[in-house]
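Translate sequence into structure tokens.
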Amino acid sequence: MKRTKAKLRKACLLITGVLFIVGCEPGENVTPDNGNNDIPGSFKPGVFIINEGNFGWGNGSVSFFDFTELKVYNHLFQKANDRVLGDVPQSMFIMDSLGFIVVNNSGKIEVVNMENFRSVNTITGLTSPRYFLPVSELFAYVSDLYSGLITQVRLDDFIITKTIETGMSTEQMIKIGDELFVANWSGGNKILVIDIVEGKPVDTIDVIMEPNSMVMDKNNKLWVLCSGGYLNEEIPAILRIDPVTREKEKIFRFSVLESSPSHLCINGLGDTLYFLNNGIFQMPVTETEIPSEPLVQTEKLFYSIGVDPESGIIYAADAVDYQQKGKVFRYLPEGALKDSFDVDIIPGSFVFNR
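Result follows.
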């Protein structure tokens, strides 16, 4: 559960009544899940939606939206395995024929077959895992909120082989060459650099408080979105960093201390950034300042976004009141609403599968 998200939740609960009556209606061309035990015949092309569920309730799930059929399949893991997924699914990574679903509060990673979504293994022994990232054919790393460790997992047998002391929370990770760049999110203000070959930290880059998301652009520059801290300790900012020299080439500061920017992502061409900040913002990597107006202005308090790398369609998740099923709204690259569909409780992230 993210601190930035916690701020959004607090605000959302204050305006729940407004959220029920304001906003765009679902498109007519999206077919809802019929509630039976169907599993799609193929998971390509489409997008997985990771639904967090309520903290401590164990009701997290994974949905799938089929691009060809325009059909939604909910509760994939439960339908395929006759058991629930767990407490707060956080993220998912697809590697060849396997999917790795990180279940944060259950302290595990479910490994599934990408043909039928059946479990092939469960990686346990983790404290509060956040993201899973393969760095070679042999190993992957797992970030963690509370343990102060990054965990190395062997990919042939899914055994934990090593832990790296970080002394800080770790969030999103990006592999650049033989180095791993890791956001120090909760209460932190650094990007940690880990030498993958040596398996140890080699550097840190000071940024703004609580970096919550990162992307690489077409020019091999690292972009980092920082919320400024849960208590608004600093003005939020987006930083452009040269990962080779570690130089902070540009700091784009937001105009308001109370801004809550989150979910930095990038299009498939690597030339346009997107993020949430009481609306959906679009920002070319050539821009000289943060846009003053959003691409999508809405009364809805979107919880997360993702951008299809091929079509450029923007997916925005609405957690509604954080109790009932959430919705996903699809917007064309120019910002026009395309359609929407229902998913499950608190849709938190998107994974595109082409």
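Note: The CA atoms of residues 122 and 289 lie 44 Å apart.
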